[in-house]
Write a structure and sequence with these properties.
Layout: H1 3-20, H2 26-39, H3 46-62
Length: 63
């Protein structure tokens, strides 16, 4: 099954987005938004959630 590879690829893409500090297109926005939806409300992911919400906020402020 190809699902583990898909999730590894998505995780790597998300890490690159965070590393560059900017969402550049709609596909990247969807990856970030999906991850926020996954971890929202989980106390052990507060730092990651803060970074991802900052990326989303920057994009919304620039539009």
């Amino acid at each position: 099954m190809h699902l583990p590879r898909f999730f590894q690829k998505s995780k790597a893409q998300l890490e690159r987005i965070v590393a560059k500090g900017k969402i550049k297109n709609e596909n990247e926005w969807h990856l970030v938004r999906h991850r926020v939806d996954e971890i929202e409300g989980q106390s052990n992911n507060d730092a990651e959630l803060e970074v991802l919400n900052e990326l989303l906020g920057q994009l919304e402020a620039s539009v």
